[in-house]
Design brief:
The protein has helices at residues 13-23, 40-50, 60-72, 81-87, 105-112, 123-139, 149-157, 183-186, 191-194, 204-212, 214-227, 265-271, 287-290, 319-335, 343-353, 355-358, 368-390, and strands at 3-8, 29-36, 54-57, 76-78, 94-97, 117-120, 143-146, 166-173, 234-238, 244-250, 255-259. Helices cover 44% and strands 15% of the residues. The strands form 2 sheets. The chain has a 7-stranded parallel β-sheet with strand order 4-3-2-1-5-6-7, with helices on both faces. A 4-stranded mixed β-sheet has the order 9-8-10-11, covered by helices on one side.
Length: 391
């Protein structure tokens, strides 16, 4: 029997890659649901290829514009996961959750209720709402697989290992497009420079996060939550080719390294591995990259965002929502050329230091509403501080 699949954010990079793998293995998978925000043309093409009978269009304007088209094609159209969930009978076998930003948290929480396995490729959802996700995973007996290459690698490396046996986990960073550029020159760089990632093909926002290294701060927070380990168990190191994704050092002296090409196909493929019969999609082993790993410590002078690690709470708190919301807003302002590159660091520090937000470091997220309201407040405050900083 074919495995029933749903993909949230099917028109994005992760969603499209997932569908390419499924396309090569049509005999094993049946796509029951696809979702997008605005990319309707790509969604329509995906629906035709995979003969999908359910779609979600989150954008209200696009939903209303295309409602008639899908109904004429006898395809059920929904505006959100809650509506789909009410109409879907049975249980999905697998959900890929790849809607970017905090907008992905609510759909993820809803989808956990109707699937046997979920792959989450959304940093913000895990960072801001992990305790809510974990609660739903347990309640609905849903298997979770992290899709980010670093977390998937750690997940694989510590399988069947006791947490007490782990000495250190190293999360690798490419160093982004500015690794070999001096800090004095960085101040002049614009969004076009920041989005040219040397090893990964990514969207603009995550490419900027890579250039500041805040994406690695995010990944460290995710790892701490997912694997339930203290922050002192983790360290970020530079590995320019992005060929090594994680290293785990054990107390017995053994060190495990997980390496694979710079392609999200590897973690996605393995998360879909319900059977060994599905065809391979990965690239061949590259011995030249293994021979030139060139591990480096982070230059904290060039990447001051690494100082944020000292601010992190030792338990799940709303402080993470403040960090994510402020950074997302600042990256958006930078991409629109309203602030400069180093303003991202400086204004982020100001937001996190505000007296009105200090209490949230000691408050655990209780529900989705609480996270959303705080996020909206932080975004408005960040914009206000950004305007003041550029006057």
């Amino acid at each position: 029997m074919k495995k029933k699949i749903a993909i949230l954010g099917s028109t994005g990079s992760i969603g499209s890659t997932t569908l390419k793998i499924i396309l090569n293995n049509k005999n094993f998978f049946q796509v029951d649901l696809l979702s997008t925000n605005k990319n309707i043309n790509r969604l329509k093409k995906q629906v035709r290829i995979f003969k999908v009978k359910n779609v979600i269009i989150h954008n209200i304007k696009k939903f209303n514009q295309n409602k008639l088209y899908f109904k004429q094609k006898k395809i059920k159209i929904f505006q959100n996961v809650k509506d789909f969930k009410k109409n879907y009978k049975g249980k999905l076998d697998y959900v890929m959750s790849s809607i970017i930003g905090l907008n992905g948290l609510e759909p993820t929480l809803d989808m956990i209720q109707i699937t046997k396995r979920i792959g989450i490729a959304n940093k913000e959802s895990i960072i801001c709402g992990w305790n809510l996700i974990k609660k739903n995973l347990k309640k609905y007996n849903t298997e979770f697989i992290p899709i980010d290459s670093e977390h998937f690698s750690i997940f694989e490396l510590i399988k069947n290992e006791k947490p007490a046996s782990i000495k250190k986990i190293y999360i690798t960073a490419s160093g982004g497009p500015f690794l070999k550029i001096s800090k004095s020159k960085l101040a002049k760089f614009n969004p076009q420079n920041a989005i040219k990632h040397p090893t990964w093909k990514m969207g603009k926002k995550i490419s900027v996060d890579s250039s500041t290294l805040i994406n690695k701060v995010y990944e460290l927070i995710e790892a701490k939550k997912i694997f339930d380990l203290s922050y002192d168990k983790f360290e970020i190191i530079i590995q320019p080719t992005s060929y090594v994704h994680a290293i785990v050092e054990f107390k017995n002296g053994i060190c495990k390294i997980l390496s694979h090409p710079t392609s999200m196909r590897i973690p996605i493929y393995n998360s879909l591995l319900f059977t060994n019969k599905i065809s391979d999609v990965y690239e061949s082993f590259d011995i030249n990259k293994i021979n030139n790993l060139n591990f480096q410590k982070i230059d904290k002078f060039k990447f001051p965002v690494n100082k944020l690690l000292n601010r992190l709470s030792s338990f799940d708190s709303l402080h993470e929502t403040i960090l994510v919301s402020a950074n997302d807003t600042l990256v958006d302002l930078f991409l629109k050329k309203k602030i400069k590159f180093f303003d991202i660091y400086e204004i982020l520090e100001k937001v996190l230091s505000l007296k009105q937000y200090k209490k949230f470091k000691f408050l655990k997220p209780q529900n989705l509403d609480q996270i959303v309201k705080l996020s909206e407040n932080v975004r408005l405050k960040t914009i206000s501080l950004s305007v003041q900083s550029t006057i």
